[in-house]
Amino acid sequence: MRLTRCAQGIVLLIVLLSSAALVLDGMPLLLAAGTLLAFLTCQYLVFDHRFRQAIGSVTVQRSLERTLVRKGATLHVTTMITLQVPPHLQAGVKEILPPGLEVQDGETAAVFDAAGSPQSRRLGYLVTAVVHGQMQFSGLSLSAWDTFFKNSIRLTAAPFSGPLLLVQPVGLFEPSLKRISTESREVEKMSVLSGLGVRALREYYAGDDLRRIDWKLSAKHDKLFVREYTGMVSLPPLLIVDLPAKGAAFDPRDFETMVAAVAGMAEYSVRMYQHVSVLLISGANILHYAGGEKNLRRCMSMLREWMHPAGRTVNLYRTPDRTDLRSRIRTIEHLLAEQADPKTTRFLAALRTKSQAALQHQKTHVFTSQLVRTFSPLAMDEAYLYSLCEGDTSHLRQVIRQAKTMEFSVHLRVPKAFWAFSETSGGNRLIADTMEVFA
Amino acid sequence: MNLPRPALQRPEYVFLAVLGAGTLAVTVTTASPFWYAGPVLYLLLCGALHATRTWHDRALYLLCAGQLLIIGSGAANLWSGLFAVWMLAGIVLGTLGLLESGPELRSYLLFCLFALAIATGIEVSNHVLLPLLVLGSAAILFVGAVTIRDYRLKKQYTGAPS
Fold it and tell me: Does B157 lie at the interface with A, CB-CB under 8 angstroms?
């Protein structure tokens, strides 16, 4: 139980009046102090009764999108809270989350006003599991206040807590020593990209294009046969959005521009190609993938839900890619061949040894595997990568590399400041095919 | 649809009117050389009631303004001071809208009984010290009881084993 500012003033008044009564031996002063004390006591009894009524009326229903996730995964939590607030009382509830979960977006608190009937509030929020283990949703914190008093209580008993979230640990590297293949593989189905392939052969009907007649087969069967070619379709681009890290320093205007650009591109894709695929990442963390989304409204709703700075559980700046390491070794060897200064030569030789050692122990990163698994089934030839390029950009390099392995043309869209910096520093496009300012 | 009641029918104004009549009666009957103190302090309370209409923590300002009238009336006659206490509490609770339901009226009556008990205790005492000690002890006991009760409530709802 705590006193509001008003009640604190009354307590001060009681102390002053009591002191004055004691010093002056004044009965009227004592009457004033004593009755103020009685007033405050009665008001507390009323507040306490109402607070207990409010607690007794709380019901909670919490549901998770999934109850078993991997560390770093983001999931949606919905909590329906019903509460009846007695008259002249205001109440607020707040979710108590396990320490291993980080809120990415959404509302975890609600305020209830006094009403004659129970009110319901729905809290919806996204959380990311930053550590592994079993995590029990602890419950709610209920606060209530009136003119004189305020009190809060943690409702963590069985009816208010749960469900249990199981977070599986995930390593930084793939367990297998064999490198996850990024090569193409044969599939026993027709590819939509193959516009020169023959889909079927059939008998000739009057009006068929004579250029399609298969003369060899026709001669063999003494009947005219025509080829039916596979069709060519325009493929929609894949939109990859790299969301900034939560708490990172970035220009909010750039972020707004990026959001608008992504929304515009998604809308264009849906209108032109009837569907769009969006991959949302934040650093080396895949947050969400919406593949082949045909409903524009649902697509925009998804973008509204996810396009916020997100917490990053994994970063790549300590785990350079094998390709980068090989490139570094080649550069060092090139420099060694040209270098005459023994001190510099010794340094470069040591650096080469370290890099070679790192290369031997370097394995495929989980993020790389996730990218390969995401890109493999996609029938696309272009990818647009939107990023604010703040801080470490190792993950962007990895995304672009994997996309290019799948023979996607990668178009990087960056803020104007980064673009200008890249242009002045020798056109560092992070190995993308093109780089433009998003607008 | 609940239409707001006219200002003069609201409980705080009813209590204010009764307090005004009581103050006038005490002023007339006591014939004190400081007869003007009661009406002046009453007018001060009226002014506070008017001036604090839109202020936060209005209850505190009204109680502060009302204490002067209680002390003034109590100096003339302890029972007239008690009457002022009852009326002031009615005014404050009326402004907060806390006199609208049965439980709220019962709470007000409980306060009136507490105030009567305190006034009776003061009346039978010769000096301030003893009733002050009794009041202080009661307050400490009450705070202790409230703390234990609060602890038990929190223990019950946090799911701790009893």
Answer: yes
